[in-house]
């Protein structure tokens, strides 16, 4: 994540994604390894934040087998159930992970 790459621990035995990240699988306790995963998901819920220093739109995104909370670009067209794509991730100056999403374009 520090390099802006989004990877998720995946169990080497059963294939389950371990989220939040863990060295052991929550299902079978097998060892996990980091793998790149699809960066698209579905917007489950979203809301505006008015907390000073953290203003913006934040949402819950259903990824493939786990959920993330991330910031969103609000173009006035956000709606529950829409597809979104992670366009950046990393670790902020406070050491906390961040994820940013934009509406996925359909062609």
TrEMBL record:
InterPro entries of this UniProt entry?
A: ChsH2_Znr, NA-bd_OB-fold, Thioester_dehydratase-like
Cite the ChsH2 rubredoxin-like zinc ribbon domain residue spans from the record.
3-32
Could you tell me which Pfam families the record lists for this protein? zf-ChsH2
Superkingdom classification of source: Archaea
Q: Which residues form the signal peptide?
A: none
Concerning SUPFAM superfamilies, the annotation shows:
Nucleic acid-binding proteins
Q: Which PANTHER family match?
A: BLR3430 PROTEIN (PTHR34075)
Q: By what name is this protein known?
A: Zinc ribbon domain-containing protein
Q: Which organism is it from?
A: Nitrososphaera viennensis
């Amino acid at each position: 994540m520090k390099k802006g790459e989004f990877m998720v621990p995946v169990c080497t035995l059963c294939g389950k994604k371990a989220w939040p990240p863990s060295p052991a699988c929550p299902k079978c306790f097998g060892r996990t390894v980091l793998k790149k995963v699809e960066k698209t998901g579905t917007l489950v819920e979203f809301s505006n934040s008015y907390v000073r220093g953290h203003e913006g739109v934040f949402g819950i995104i259903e990824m493939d087998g786990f959920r993330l909370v991330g910031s969103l670009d609000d173009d006035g067209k956000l709606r529950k159930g829409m597809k979104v794509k992670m366009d950046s991730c990393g670790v902020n100056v406070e050491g906390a992970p961040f994820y940013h999403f934009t509406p996925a374009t359909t062609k």
